TrEMBL record:
Keywords: Heme, Iron, Membrane, Metal-binding, Monooxygenase, Oxidoreductase, Transmembrane, Transmembrane helix. The chain crosses the membrane at residues 12-30. This is Cytochrome P450. SUPFAM superfamilies: Cytochrome P450. The keyword RNA-binding does not apply. Heme binds at C464. GO terms for molecular function: heme binding; iron ion binding; monooxygenase activity; oxidoreductase activity, acting on paired donors, with incorporation or reduction of molecular oxygen. InterPro entries: Cyt_P450 (IPR001128), Cyt_P450_CS (IPR017972), Cyt_P450_E_grp-I (IPR002401), Cyt_P450_sf (IPR036396), Cytochrome_P450_fung (IPR050364). PANTHER family: CYTOCHROME P450 98A3, P450, PUTATIVE (EUROFUNG)-RELATED-RELATED. Belongs to the cytochrome P450 family. Its cofactor is heme.
Amino acid sequence: MALESLPSLSPYILLSLFIALPLLTLLHDINTWRRMPPGPQPLPFLGNKLQLPTSSPWLQFQKWSKVYGPIMTIWIGRKPTIVISDPVIAADLMEKRSTKYSSRPRMVAMGEILWDNASVLVQPYGKEWSVRRKLLHQALTPRALRLYKPVQEAEASRLCAELLRTPARWEKLLERFTSSVVFCVAYGHRIDSLDAEVIRQRFKFMQYSASLNVPGKYMVESFPVLKYIPDVLAPWKAEIKAHGREEAAANMKLVELVKSDIANAKVRGDDIPDSLCKLLLELREKEGVPLSDRDFSYIPASLFGAGSDTTASTLCSAFLALVTHPETLRAAHAELDAVIGPSRTPTFADEPSLPYLRALVKEVLRWRPVAVLGGTPHASTEDDIYEGHYIPAGTTILGNSWAINLNETYYPNPHHFNPARFLSPNDAAVAKTEALDKKIGFEMGKPHPSKSGHSSFGWGRRICPGADLAANSLFVALGKILWAFDITPLKGGVRYDTFAYTEGFNIRPRPFECGISVRSEAHREVLMREVKEAEGVLERFTPFG
Ligand code: HEM
């Protein structure tokens, strides 16, 4: 009897495999949907994949946040992503509970196969990440940042001289400026042209790594076990690894260059310019650093990918803001004329007495956050309950910087570019200009929880380690440019669209033209004089060919 019944069991087994298992999985998913923060209704196994927009997802997420609230869940297949649109919630999770929310979602193709876990940007939270992060901090302390200021000032003077000569190329000139600052700070060598081989190479690496991060492109993201298939059976993997080897070799060559600079300088009996790579090499010699040469080389290399395009894009947004909000240009001119006068451009030493300029830098970062979805997402590493909602370990956490920085509760009239939002009552008294009094006024909302007053550099333990370096570049470049130039709309009623931005993880305004003209002959003469002094500073930072 028992033997006879065996064959009749197999349909039951099949039935349980094909119906009961998916059903149980679905019941489990429905239970999790109900316990997690609300969001658009997911479909079984697909989640919200069909509802996700193919362009500017931050706009759709912002719209959904008005329906489902400032903390909501979207599902990519069966994987949950929490999207946050309120700065207090972002700080509650990613800062106050940072031990649980400081990891990164697994990026197998890019983080594990291409970079072999060497890049700090995508590394999971843990010892390997903290070793790298600590080194970055040690080379970006306030003391170290002071060492980089002369080159930032000199490059900003060079930028102004270039704007005098070819104002129509302003966007490329801003890119050269930020690339050169990043390379001077990272390796002590400047960039004279965006055609330099080292820049082409960096762009190639960046484009390749971004191309790996396209959802659905590699099965290995859904089935990480595939990364263990031998290379001969997986040509896709062999190709990614070959690109990884090329990038690692290029990174190590840059470190070797700095080592030979140091050795040559020793023979000559002088010193080379201070750079992050030099500081890290000294630290390695003094204290020892538990990283292979290859992994070590990724630390200075991370500066270009993370810091060049982001800073240039923010400067592009500043130009768009000034063209479309001329009263802010007048207010900046008024402050610079009163504090600096006509015979020199501003420097870092003037920072305390230029509150409006400082506020303008913050407002650009707020108004159009370049890392529009908070840069690289965070991931949680422990189950948690927030305001009664369940957030399981392994959830991806996106701070929607667009929605956060343009949240009306914190920034009334959020699309109005208004640096005065960032003036304290004391600053306002100092920066009391006619333009400020008549045109701008104050638009104060609920205070933002962070000291910077915006969320453009991210949160908690993963907050951008280059934030102060970037803010310094923005301050000195905008200070000198605004002192010297009028930046105006083109004549003939050209309409500027302040929402016309590129797609991608980092955004910048779509190309636009504007008028850039020197404010007077006296201003021109000052720029020509100062660029000569700047060339003296930059001489020590020999250029990459
Ligand atoms: C305006 C310019 C910049 C903006 C808007 C920006 C923004 C960001 C954001 C939003 C993040 C993610 C933070 C998070 O996960 O919570 C980030 C991470 C990072 N940024 Fe920046 N950044 C800028 C410039 C720089 C510069 C100049 C450097 C060079 C030192 C840099 C190095 C990094 C690194 C290494 C990370 C990864 C940190 C980690 O995962 O632990 N960034 N940045």
